[in-house]
Amino acid sequence: SLPKLGDTLGPTSPVRIAELSDDGAVSLTLGNFDPAEPGATVLPVSGYAVWWDAVAEPVPGQHVTRSQLVASWSRYPSNAHKHADELGLIIWAGGGPWISSAGYWPYASPYRDQAIAWSTSNAPHFDGEPTFPDTYSELKGHLYSHQVAFMDLERDAGEGRILRRQVLRLGPGDYIAIDTAATSAGTTVVWTAANGVEVSPLDTGDDFILERQPGDARFVVAIRSEQGVEVSLHDGDTEPFLGWTAELREEISVPAIRVRNDSSQWVMTRLSVTDASRSTPGAGIAMSSWTDPENWTLVFDDMSRRVERRGNAIELSGDTGARGESTFSIERPDGVA
To answer: How far apart are CA 251 and CA 10, in angstroms?
Structure first.
């Protein structure tokens, strides 16, 4: 799909953005993009990454295997049509968008300044940050395979304030974001749902179920932290500005999940699509050990699988790594100093 990055008009729909011919010519089309194999495009200097999952022969009525995650850490001098979205994520899965952003907010709207700020981009940020602070963001490391994908993003906000987001792909449409800050200053993430998505809290802690139509795929946002965080659900609020998107420049209220952290070393969010036929899930995974952002262990609730980061490697054990290689190197991308 075409993700709503910055002033993207929307609504999202399956498209093919570009096609490269054998002679090097690029043609732009707006047809269906239906890849038969999973893959990734990483642009470390431009500041964007796309992961997608697909199957050659999809099962009728089952969309879980089709998904796309888009990450942004782009920053350029003019900020033209840009929003405050460094380290932000947009997720499309199970036949439609789930986690989105403000999109092309009308310039004449009195809320234009708030709409392009941090509260609509799913990006971690410090409380009270201006929309376009003097910051620097980079992709510190990346790996992609059919078994696991991982990226490590960092934004330096100056004065020792550093935000870090690690994103892990556990399977098709199943992601984890781990957010940390190298300071005691308060941080916030606001997960903004796409238009047409309803959000309901679950009884399993700070977990939420996202739904579109009955019988359609569902999506889970499950939040875990070391010491507890403040989690709240919003929809079309103006003070503070939370729960908004735009479609064809029309302002639309949508649900948004706000996560405020004042003291926890880490905040982990599982973002996962699931079939409508499955029982309502919770997080299903826990942080069993934490030393620092480059040394941690995630364990599934049934103890059958484990994911570990050890420096510049991701290690899988149990069912997660049963189909081949179990240790994967995190590579620093080419073109980055």
So the answer is: 12
Q: Is 16 exposed, middle or buried (0-12, 13-18, 19+ CB in 10 A)?
A: middle
Tell me whether strands 285-292 and 187-192 are parallel, antiparallel or unpaired.
unpaired
On the CB side of 307, how many CA atoms lie within 13 Å of its CA?
23
Would you state the structure tokens that stand for residue 181, as one six-digit string?
A: 């800050």
User: Please, what is the average pLDDT of the chain?
Assistant: 85
Instruction: Reply yes or no: is the peptide bond before residue 214 cis, omega within 30 of 0.
Output: no
- C-alpha–C-alpha distance, residues 111 and 127, integer Å: 19
Q: What is the rounded CA–CA span in Å between residue 138 and residue 140?
A: 6
How far, in Å, CA of 264 to CA of 80, rounded? 35
What digits encode the pLDDT tens for the residues 126-180? 998 888 777 889 999 999 998 899 999 999 988 889 999 999 999 889 999 999 9
Q: How far is CA 256 from each of CA 59, 109, 186, 200, rounded to the nearest angstrom?
A: 31, 20, 19, 11
Q: How far is CA 25 from CA 15, 16, 33, 46, 138, in A?
A: 19, 15, 19, 21, 30
Question: Residue 205 in contact with residue 281, Cβ under 8 Å?
Answer: no
Total-model pTM:
0.88
Q: How far is CA 213 from the centre of its chain?
A: 22
d(CA 320, CA 293): 21
